Amino acid sequence: MTVSTATALLGLAMTARTQTLRDLTPVDPAPGDTLVVGYLGGFERWNDGNRGVRQTVLHLRDLPGVHAESVENRHRRVGRDWILQALGRGARPARVILFGQSLGGAAAIATARDLRRHGIPVSLTVQVDSVGLRDGVIPDNVRAAANFYQHEWFTFQGETRIRAQDPTRTRILANEQIHYPALLPWPSPESWMRRTFGGGHARMEADPRVWLRVESLIRESLMGEAPEGAQ
What we know:
alpha/beta
């Protein structure tokens, strides 16, 4: 076996490693703190710094009282368990905010449903070109929700319209379509594979304007209501 082959196999092994709760930082939130979980789409690694979900999480970590982590959509229960563990440690409940892209958008809504079964409210969910089952109905433990999507040809198309399971308890902030003309320049860095085959779905994931919107919604939520039980 050559050195280059061994290096390639090692790289594949590292990529394939399952994300676990040990990859997330344990927290003991103070009253009024916020737990944020962002779910990546596709087969993206949780710590891929080129992806919009991960970049947003890292930005949010700079805010006082915010504990933010990124999670692979296929291991979404890691995010759920991190939240449950943190709320079990905390003296009082913290806010919870969930967001995600593609399959990660569906994972965010599935996690909100999980938390509903534990009686835990969610301040905000944000979906970016969400792809999955049952991701169009927002559970009634979510206070506000937003959805951004594209419907370009020859690509995965995100959830067009989210609706509240109970409109008296959940406010829908946005069901906004964004268009991506074929000649629109790609932001950098993006791989040849993404540029060639990703279409509008990949363009949206790479669009910094979308992630500025997501981060802005999260920041607005942070300035909003206090979590239940906080004083």
